[in-house]
């Protein structure tokens, strides 16, 4: 007597459940527990070729989905998105939540980028600041004898020596193995006449021209809200300049010059007393590598990107994702 359709259905369903259960067991042992096919065969009581066939079935029937991925792949997709959104020629993203110091992680990304993308006879102009200093500390020792590093802005006497432009210039050249060209002038002088006289002098004018025609600039992106140590305008911003910066919505500064949320230069009386390359010259450089990160820097970074003041951004994942949310 033939089995009823109901009994046949129950039998087929039971057989299918057992088969799927076997596929799951074999797949978990192989992909999650790391067991070999021989070990699985011994455990389930089948031959190794049968186990191999079961693993193939598991993939074909969707029991197992294989996806090749890595944290770096996600970082690279963010870098691409940043470049497309802001018209950058490059970006590097450091992981925000990894073992180690975030400053060191971002700085290592910046150092790696410079070494990987620069020729040995590079001409690099460099500003000051903690991000630039950290990048130099992360630099490997090179033997780029033909390289040149030029100081982009004057020195700040009240700044920590290690992060001053004269020192970052000297130390970067030391790491690259090339020659450094210092700018023998302060960042800010007492009066516009003094600045004009210095800028017109043959030595200073020649160095500033060299800096303005460099292959690459390495700069930090400062925020006017961050008045912690190393703030380069302490003692220089008089009441009139402060009022203009507030009125015109200053969000950050690069190489001693302030800009608003759109990256537009804010002209103040301070500009006429500042010695270094200006924002117009910075925009003309083939490549400006800006190194900055952190929530407190978001407005400044965003403004620099919108204003095309940097063409390469080195930052961390959290900052990059916040920039992409706009």
UniProtKB/TrEMBL annotation:
<feature type="domain" description="Sugar-binding">
    <location>
        <begin position="71"/>
        <end position="325"/>
    </location>
</feature>
<keyword id="KW-0804">Transcription</keyword>
<keyword id="KW-0238">DNA-binding</keyword>
<dbReference type="InterPro" id="IPR051054">
    <property type="entry name" value="SorC_transcr_regulators"/>
</dbReference>
<dbReference type="GO" id="GO:0030246">
    <property type="term" value="F:carbohydrate binding"/>
</dbReference>
<dbReference type="Pfam" id="PF13384">
    <property type="entry name" value="HTH_23"/>
</dbReference>
<dbReference type="InterPro" id="IPR007324">
    <property type="entry name" value="Sugar-bd_dom_put"/>
</dbReference>
<dbReference type="InterPro" id="IPR009057">
    <property type="entry name" value="Homeodomain-like_sf"/>
</dbReference>
<dbReference type="InterPro" id="IPR037171">
    <property type="entry name" value="NagB/RpiA_transferase-like"/>
</dbReference>
<dbReference type="GO" id="GO:0003677">
    <property type="term" value="F:DNA binding"/>
</dbReference>
<keyword id="KW-0805">Transcription regulation</keyword>
<dbReference type="Pfam" id="PF04198">
    <property type="entry name" value="Sugar-bind"/>
</dbReference>
<dbReference type="InterPro" id="IPR036388">
    <property type="entry name" value="WH-like_DNA-bd_sf"/>
</dbReference>
<comment type="similarity">
    <text>Belongs to the SorC transcriptional regulatory family.</text>
</comment>
<protein>
    <submittedName>
        <fullName>Sugar-binding transcriptional regulator</fullName>
    </submittedName>
</protein>
